[in-house]
Amino acid sequence: MKENISMQIKLMLSQKSFRYQLIGLSLFSCAAFIINCISNFGRPITDVPNAYSFFIGSSLSEVFYYIFSVILPIVCVIPFADSYFRDRNKNTLPIIILRSSPIKYYFSKGIAVFVSGFIVVFICLMLNFLMNFIAFPVSKGCDFTMFSTYYSDFYIKGYWSDNILLKNLFVGYPYLYNLLFLFIISVLGGVYSIIVYNISYYTKKQHILMLSSMFILSNILAIISTISNNFNIRIENYCFAFSQFERIETTNIIIMIVLYLLLIFVPIPFCLKKLRNVI
After folding, report:
1. Which tens digits make up the pLDDT trace of 160-215?
2. CA gyration radius for the chain?
3. On the CB side of 258, how many CA atoms lie within 13 Å of its CA?
4. Which positions ≥6 away from 148 have C-beta within 8 Å?
5. What is the distance between the alpha carbons of residues 156 and 184, in angstroms, rounded to a whole number?
6. What are the mean pLDDT values of the chain's consecutive 10-residue runs (279 residues total)?
7. How far is the C-alpha of 200 from the C-alpha of 187, rounded, in Å?
8. Residue 43: its pLDDT value, please?
9. What pTM did the predictor assign?
10. Sign of dihedral through CA atoms 242, 165, 243, 69?
11. 270: buried, middle or exposed (CB in 10 Å: 19+, 13-18, 0-12)?
12. Are 229 and 236 a contacting pair, CB within 8 Å?
């Protein structure tokens, strides 16, 4: 199994789609940083927000957060989520399975697919996080009260802190807070890739539609969440830092988690059956 995983990861790293996507997301990360630098150039240091507010994985970055949250379901699946689709269409699938087994193929490929989605998102976000950390003020009077964050009643008792996830972590350790959500968003990229990988077993010719499936699902859930204010099940709303809610409903979080777990695990026996039929 280790040899299969190693082979699939090496194959993933050699893909042009992986390298191009990694370069593209890195350029987006750098562009967001440069634009923020230009927009704050010449301002008094006391007027420049803290570095954590420019992180593209946080809703505090506004425009870049919105763009990244919209494109995430597509950019993370392009590198390797369609790998099975390619193997089948190139007629290399029977040879690969004969040299291993359906179970080894499915899970080794799945691990590589998850890693591909995780890596491209993680590197993009970490690059942006580090550049902001270097260029902008790390610690100063907070953006609203001009007092230390630790003593700011606005953060501790105000509307913003009462309606974000993990508010106490943000108040005490805002950069650790961003790093945590950086990891969560990266895992989400891997999850999206796995789901599209499962969908690829049922896709014959609709390559673009397959790669867009999570983008479509995300937008459908966004519409449902917008129409029904108390039924927010768009996963991006929970995975990005400083996302705000009118009210945090535990039931919605459970429904959302169950939905994505079903999309990951329910197709597995059917995918394995398809692989056994190849032999």
Report:
1. 555 778 887 887 788 999 999 999 999 999 999 999 999 999 888 888 888 899 99
2. 21
3. 6
4. 141, 142
5. 24
6. 85 90 94 92 80 90 90 92 87 84 90 95 96 85 49 48 75 88 95 94 85 90 80 84 74 88 93 85
7. 20
8. 80
9. 0.88
10. positive
11. exposed
12. no
Contact predicate 242/170, CB 8 Å: yes
| Angle at alpha carbon of residue 123, lines to 63 and 48, rounded to 5° | 40
Query: What is the residue whose two structure tokens read 């959500």?
Result: 181
In this structure, what token pair is assigned to residue 138?
């790390």
Contact in structure between 120 and 25 (CB atoms under 8 Å):
yes
52/119 Cα distance (integer angstroms): 21
DSSP 47: G
Amino acid at 233: I
* Separation between Cα atoms, residue 210 and residue 208, nearest integer Å: 5
- Which helix (H) or strand (E) covers residue 132, if one does? helix 102-135
Q: Which residues neighbour 143 within 8 Å (Cβ) at sequence distance 6 or greater?
A: 49, 50, 53
